[in-house]
Design a protein that fits this description.
5% helix; 22-stranded antiparallel barrel; 5-stranded mixed sheet
C-alpha cells in the first residue's frame, strides 16, 4: 500500500499544474480502436503512441495546442485543443481509411515505434502481415507466420510445437485476450486456434521481456482479438478441402446520439476441419498417406460481446472452445494405429478498460477461467492400455494502471492473482506410473517505467514480485531494457532480467518427436540437481541477456540480435524411473545462446523477408545410470532459415504471388541400443518362468546422441481478388505446400521402427467471401 501511495505522489508531482489531453483513436469505418497510432503535438514537438486499446494520454502546460494523428493507410486528423492548468480534456479521434493496396501499406515501417520503444526480441504481427505469407491450404494462420519469426523453431507440419530461443512450449506463455492458452497449435501444425480475421495484433517477446509478464522463463506470445464492427454487420465465409470457417461481427445496439461511440457489438467465429475425409477422396491420386486419410480433425469456436461507453471505457465478455484429435497411421497406410491423440480447451472470461474522467490513467483488467485436457494412447508400449493424460484448469484475475508521460514515456503497474490446478497420469519408459495432483494460488505485483530522454536514450527498468503458495516461495524478478538511438536509422538495444515459473512440462528427451504436451505444477517434494544435491526450491528460474542493432536503409530494415539464456533450474519428470522408490522428478540446468539476423525489404509491389538464426541449446541432467550428463535439448537445431517473397500484380493490384522456403538442421534424439523382456518376478498369479514379459527399450547411454535428417520445404500460393459489389469481394487462392515433395520425418515408433513423414506435396484451393 505504501508503494502505491508513493507512486501516486510521484505522478502528481511530475504533472503538477499541467493539463492532460487524453482519448481514443478509432477507425471511422468499423469503430475499431487504432493501435500504435502516432498522436503528435505539432506546436510542442512531442507526442505519444496509442496502446492496444487505441488509448493515448499526454501531459502539457496550459495553452493552445494542435494535435495531428497519423496512421499508415489513413487520412491524417488535425484538431485544436485549449488546455487549462490541471484540466483533463478527452478527445475521440476518428480516422478515415485511404484506398491503399495491401503491399503499399507495408512500405513505411512504424518509425515512431522503433525510436520510442526498446523492442529487443520483439516482433509485432498484424493481420496484413499474416496474409503476406504463402498460406498452406489457402488459409493464412498465426501458426504459419510464427515459423518465420527470428529465433522460433517449429517441429513441423504435423504435431507442430513452438520453441522460442531455447525455451520449451511450457516455458512460453501464450495468451488469447490475456487468458493463458496451454496448447494453441493443432496436431496438423499448419493451423492454430486463433482466427486470422479476428486478430487485432500479436506481440511476440522472444527474450528480455518486461515485468508485465510473469510465470514463464523463456518467451511470450500475446494475441489480441478485435472488437465487433460498431457500424454495420460484416463477415467472411471460407471453404477449402481442409476446413470451413466463418466470422460475423456487427452492432447489437447502436447509440442514437450523433457521433457517440456507445453501443454493444458482437464478434463470433468458428472453423472445423474435415481433412480426414476429404484427403481420401480428393487426394487419393497422390498415394499414401492421403489414400488412407490424413488423420486430423479439429473444431474451434470463439465469441465476444463488447459493451462500449461513449468515453472509451468498455467491457468485453467472451467464451471459447477448441478441440483437436489425431489418429496416426504408418506410412504404408496400414490399419495398425501408432498413436491416438486428442486435446480440448474451454474458457470464459471478461476484460475491461476504464478511462476515468478525472484521471490521466487508463485502467484495465481481466477475470477468466479455462480448462485444458490432453490424452495420448500409444500402441506397442508396455502400458499401451493406459493413456497419458494431463489436465490444467484455474482462474486468472488482474488490474493494471497505465500513465502516458511526455516524450513517449510511460509508467505502468498492476496486481495479478490466479489459482491453478493440475492433474497428471504418466509413465516412464519402463512402464512405471506417475500420478500427480496439485493446486496453487499465485499473487504478483509489478512496476514498469519507461523514460525517453531527448529522443536519444530509452531507459526501461521494471520489477515483478511473485508469490507461489504451493512452494511457499516469494520471488523478486528485476528486469531492465535500454536503447540508444545513434540516429533515426541506426539504433542499439539491450534487455535482460530474472524470470521464474512453477509450470512443468512432460516432454520426454527419449521420444523421437513428442506429441504429448502435458503440464503440472512444481511438486512439493524433494528434487536433486545434476550434482546430486537437494535443490533449495522447486521453483524454475532463468536469466536473459539479449542485445542488438537495428539499421534502416531506404526500403530495407535490418535487425541483428545475439542472445543468451541460462536456465538455472528446469524441473523434469524422471523419465528413467524404473522402481517405485525412484524419484518422480529431477532438476536440470540449461544454457541456450544464439544469433538471429533478419532483413525486410518493401517497395511498391515487392515484399521480401528473410530470417537466419544459429542457436546452441544444451541441458545438464542425470542419465539412466545416475551420472551427470550434458546433452543437446530435443529441439536443438543449430541452424534455421526462412525466406519469404511476395509480389502484387495487375493494374488493380488484385493478384498476389508469394513463396516461402524454410530449412533447419536436424533435431537430436536418443538412439535405441536394443530391446529386452521385463518379466515381473513377483507376479502372484503366474509363473515367472513361463509368463511373457513386457517388451522394453534399451536406450543408448548418450542422451540425444543421434540426429534426424535435415528439414526443408518450399511453399507457393497465388491469390486473385474479385470485386462483386462495393461491399463484397471474393478471394480465390491456390496453394501448393511442399512443392518438391520432400520427405521430412514426423514420427518414429521405436518398437516397430515405423516412420511417419510430414506432409507430402499438398495442393489446395480456397474461396473466401468477404461481405
Amino acid at each position: 500500500m505504501a508503494a502505491f501511495i508513493l507512486l501516486h505522489s510521484f505522478i502528481a508531482s511530475a504533472q503538477n499544474h499541467n493539463g492532460t489531453i487524453k482519448g481514443f483513436v478509432y477507425d471511422k469505418k468499423t469503430g475499431e480502436p487504432m493501435i500504435y497510432t502516432n498522436v503528435s503535438v505539432v506546436n510542442a514537438k512531442t507526442g505519444v503512441q496509442t496502446d492496444n486499446n487505441g488509448y493515448f494520454s499526454i501531459s502539457l502546460p496550459s495553452g493552445s495546442y494542435t494535435l495531428m494523428t497519423t496512421a499508415l493507410g489513413y487520412d491524417s486528423s488535425v484538431i485544436s485543443v485549449n488546455l487549462l492548468p490541471d484540466a483533463i480534456v478527452t478527445k475521440k479521434i476518428m480516422l478515415a481509411q485511404r484506398e491503399v493496396g495491401l503491399k503499399e501499406v507495408q512500405v513505411t515501417g512504424r518509425k515512431t515505434d522503433k525510436l520510442t520503444h526498446i523492442n529487443t526480441g520483439v516482433t509485432n504481427i498484424t493481420p496484413r502481415d499474416l496474409k503476406l505469407l504463402p498460406s498452406a491450404g489457402g488459409e493464412p494462420d498465426v501458426a504459419q507466420y510464427l515459423q518465420v519469426v527470428p529465433g522460433v523453431i517449429f517441429t513441423g507440419d504435423q504435431g507442430g510445437q513452438l520453441y522460442i530461443r531455447g525455451g520449451s512450449p511450457a516455458q512460453t506463455g501464450i495468451y488469447l485476450d490475456v487468458v493463458t492458452i496451454y496448447n494453441p497449435f493443432h496436431s496438423i501444425g499448419l493451423y492454430s486456434v486463433f482466427e486470422t480475421e479476428a486478430i487485432r495484433n500479436v506481440d511476440v517477446y522472444s527474450a528480455g521481456f518486461g515485468a508485465q509478464y510473469g510465470n514463464r522463463t523463456s518467451a511470450i506470445v500475446d494475441v489480441h482479438t478485435k472488437d465487433g464492427n460498431k457500424n454495420e454487420m460484416t463477415g467472411i465465409f471460407s471453404v477449402s478441402p481442409i476446413m470451413t470457417r466463418f466470422l460475423l461481427e456487427g452492432p447489437l445496439l447502436k447509440s442514437k446520439k450523433e457521433g457517440s461511440n456507445a453501443g454493444i457489438t458482437y464478434l463470433v467465429n468458428a472453423k472445423t476441419s474435415y481433412l480426414d475425409q476429404t484427403s481420401k477422396s480428393m487426394y487419393s491420386f497422390l498415394g499414401e498417406p492421403f489414400s488412407s486419410g490424413l488423420p486430423y480433425k479439429f473444431t474451434d469456436v470463439y465469441g465476444k460481446v463488447t459493451f462500449n461507453g461513449d468515453n472509451g471505457s468498455k467491457l468485453n465478455v467472451f467464451a471459447f472452445n477448441f478441440n483437436d484429435e489425431a489418429n496416426l497411421l504408418s506410412d504404408t497406410g496400414s490399419h495398425a494405429d501408432i498413436a491416438d491423440y486428442k486435446w480440448a480447451v474451454t474458457g470464459v472470461g471478461a476484460t475491461f478498460v476504464v478511462s476515468p474522467g478525472n484521471s490521466a490513467a487508463l485502467i484495465d483488467g481481466k477475470f477468466a477461467y479455462s480448462n485444458y485436457n490432453i490424452s495420448l494412447s500409444q500402441v506397442n508400449l508396455p502400458t499401451d492400455t493406459v493413456p497419458r493424460t494431463s489436465q490444467v484448469n484455474g482462474f486468472e484475475a488482474a488490474i493494471n494502471f497505465t500513465y502516458f508521460l511526455p516524450n513517449y514515456s510511460q509508467l505502468k503497474y498492476g496486481v495479478e492473482v490466479s489459482g491453478l490446478h493440475t492433474a497428471l497420469s504418466y509413465y516412464s519408459a519402463a512402464g512405471i506410473s506417475t500420478t500427480e495432483d496439485a493446486q496453487s494460488t499465485m499473487a504478483s505485483l509489478y512496476f514498469l517505467y519507461r523514460q525517453n530522454i531527448n529522443s536519444k536514450f530509452i531507459f526501461e527498468p521494471s520489477i515483478r514480485f511473485q508469490y507461489y503458495s504451493e512452494l511457499d516461495k516469494f520471488s523478486p524478478q528485476p528486469r531492465l531494457g535500454l536503447k540508444y538511438n545513434y540516429s533515426d536509422n541506426v539504433r542499439f538495444k539491450l534487455a535482460g532480467g530474472v524470470y521464474a515459473q512453477n509450470i512443468i512440462s512432460t516432454k520426454s528427451d527419449q521420444d523421437i518427436v513428442n506429441l504429448f504436451s502435458g503440464f503440472l505444477l512444481s511438486p512439493d517434494e524433494t528434487i536433486k540437481d545434476p550434482n546430486g544435491n537437494v535443490v533449495k526450491s522447486n521453483l524454475q528460474t532463468a536469466y536473459h541477456l539479449a542485445g542488438g542493432v537495428e539499421v534502416d536503409y531506404k526500403s530495407v530494415e535490418f535487425n541483428f540480435e545475439p542472445w543468451v539464456k541460462y536456465f538455472g533450474q528446469i524441473d523434469e519428470l524422471n523419465m528413467y524411473k524404473v522402481y517405485e522408490t525412484d524419484p518422480d522428478f529431477v532438476a536440470a540446468t540449461g544454457l541456450a545462446d544464439g544469433i538471429d539476423i533478419s532483413a525486410k525489404y518493401t517497395h511498391d509491389r515487392i515484399y521480401f523477408w528473410s530470417a537466419l538464426g544459429y542457436q546452441n541449446v544444451n541441458y545438464t541432467s542425470i542419465d539412466a545410470t545416475g551420472n551427470k550428463q550434458t546433452y543437446p535439448a530435443p529441439f536443438d537445431t543449430r541452424f534455421n532459415g526462412n525466406v519469404v517473397a511476395a509480389y502484387t500484380l495487375g493494374k488493380k493490384k488484385d493478384w498476389d504471388v508469394s513463396a516461402r522456403f524454410n530449412i533447419h538442421a536436424p533435431f537430436p534424439f536418443t538412439q535405441t541400443q536394443g530391446f529386452y523382456e521385463n518379466v515381473p518376478m513377483f507376479n502372484l498369479t503366474g509363473n515367472p518362468l513361463t509368463t511373457n514379459g513386457n517388451l522394453n527399450v534399451l536406450y543408448a547411454n548418450a542422451i540425444n546422441g543421434g540426429r534426424l535428417s535435415w528439414y526443408h520445404r518450399l511453399d507457393l500460393s497465388v491469390r486473385k481478388r474479385f470485386v462483386l459489389t462495393p461491399k463484397q469481394t471474393l478471394d480465390a487462392t491456390f496453394a501448393l505446400t511442399n512443392v518438391y515433395d520432400r520427405q521430412n520425418v514426423f514420427y518414429v515408433d521405436r518398437i516397430t521402427n515405423v516412420v511417419v513423414y510430414q506432409l507430402p506435396i499438398f495442393p489446395s484451393i480456397n474461396l473466401t467471401w468477404n461481405f
